[in-house]
Structure formats: C-alpha cells, structure tokens
Amino acid sequence: MTDRELISEVTIRGYAVISTPATADDPFMAHRRVAQSLGLPDAYTPLLYMDSEVRAAVGQVGPYNEIPRDIKSVQPWSEMPAQTFHVDGLLEPLGGIKTTLLHCLTQAHSGGETELFFSCDAFRDLSATDENAAQSLLHPAALTRFATISESAPTRLRATGPAFGWVEGTLATRFSDGPTEIWNTSENPNLHRALEYLRGPALDTHRVQVRLEPGDMLIFRNDRVSHRGCAYQNGARPRQLTRSMYSSAPRHSPPPR
Ligand SMILES: [Fe+2]
After folding, report:
1. 250 to 16, 76, 83, 151, 172: CA distances (angstroms)
2. What is the pTM of this model?
3. What are 169-213's pLDDT values in tens digits?
4. What's the CATH code of the domain at 115?
5. How far apart are the CA of 38 and the centre of ligand 1, in A?
6. How far is the CA of 87 from the centre of ligand 1 (A)?
7. Is residue 27 part of a domain?
8. Does any domain span residue 256?
9. Looking at the 3D structure of the chain, how many domains does it have?
C-alpha cells in the first residue's frame, strides 16, 4: 500500500492496519516513521500528562507510551479486564486528538482485541430517526470526563463538553462511556434515549474488532471513532503495545513545486 492509499483508507474508513517492524533498541522509531508517511506533526502530549500531580504519580507522561506502563510488574499468564469505550485524551476538547497509532510488540495469549465503535456513524443514524435524541448529545454539558489517577484528581482534573459536534466542519466525537464519565442527563432528558441507542442497537451495526499480530500497527481517527481494549490473558511474555497520539489527521503532503 502506498502512503497515499493508506491516508485515503484512514480518512474514508476511519482506521487501517499495517504491518511494520519494531526497531529493537527504539520501540517508537516505527511510530515516527509511520507518522511521517501520514503527514502527521510531532506526537502530542495529552493535557492530563501535563499536570504536575499526574506526572509525579505516573511514570510515562510523554507523547509515546508503553502499554502496560510497567511491564515488569505483570505476571506471566495473568488476566486483564476489558476497557470501556472511550476516545484518547480524557481532558481534551472535542477533536483534540485526531489520530492514534497502536503498535503491537507482543500479542496476548488469548483475547486482547481492539474494538472500534464508529460512534460518528451511529450519531448520523440517530439523527435520521430521533433528531431530539441526537441533539441532546451536542449539548455543551452533555458529557463530563474525569481522571481517577489520584484522590484529588476527580474534582480538579475533569472536562465537560458535548459528546459530539462539528470541528472545522467535520463531525467529531468524544463518546466515552465508563467509570471516568458522567452523562449530565438532569438538564437534558433526551440524553437517556440517545444513550439507550448508543449502548444497544448502535453497537450491533457500528463496531469492528481488530486483533493485532506482533508488528501490526493500528491507525485510527480518534476524533471520529471510539475504541476499547478487550479482555485478555497474557502469555509467558506479557502482551505489549506502544502508542502515540497526534493533534492532526493524516493528510497528503502537497506536491513539490
Ligand atoms: Fe485508548
């Protein structure tokens, strides 16, 4: 696949999977290489990682992350629970992180798929059948996300905003639905119906699972697609991924003059 084809695939479909080897002494070299071929700027450090308390509590606060953060503490054959659907960038405004790269170094013994939920497509479907429910997701206080990294974090490190909206003319999502989210339904009663749809029928038609092999890299539009890691069991060597995030979407570089 050429760079041009890859950029088109990510732009049209919202994601792509490529195979690209990791460099042994620098696991993030592949990220830099792919980011460059996608016309992406330097990797982006999320707002959460810029907070001094978070920086003190968490080992990895740069734009490049190893998942899990501390692989030495992972026991062989241990089991990991599933994540809930989210977009990367807990404190970012809508569309703040447009692209995420996930590179698989070591696969899980079983499970460990990444599940993508095409939440913007689901929003469009909802708009066609229940306009008021769709509108409720655009409310400026529809969704609050908060960090649980320390005791004081949930009150201090939180971000409220619409769950969907238009950024630079493009529909964007921050649909996230788990233990770090509050849906503000009190002033917004139609939100119940929207959530019923997004948690139920929308998932039947708008999700896909991807199981990365070692060397596979998943590229997805974090501003258009929600995602979660599925439950897995580690093998003798723990499952390991690397991640980087970008504030821009992939784009074709202008032709040389
Ligand atoms: Fe994520």
Report:
1. 12, 37, 26, 37, 15
2. 0.95
3. 999 999 999 999 999 999 899 999 999 999 999 999 999 999 999
4. 3.60.130.10
5. 20
6. 6
7. yes
8. no
9. 1
Model confidence pLDDT, tens digit, residues 246-255: 999 999 876 6
Give the C-alpha separation, 191 to 197, whole Å. 10
**CA 170 to ligand 1 centroid distance, Å:** 21
Nearest to 239 by CA among 117, 115, 88, 113: 113
| Ligand 1 midpoint to CA 174 (Å) | 12
Domain that holds residue 46: 3-246
For residue 251, being part of any structural domain is answered with no
Report yes or no on 160 lying in a domain: yes
Could you tell me the distance, in angstroms and rounded to a whole number, from the CA of residue 257 to the centre of ligand 1? 39
Tokens found for residue 127: 């708009």
User: Do 249 and 223 form a contact (C-beta atoms < 8 A)?
Assistant: yes
Averaged pLDDT of the chain: 94
**Three-class DSSP category at 17:** strand
Specify whether the CB–CB gap between 251 and 7 falls below 8 A. yes
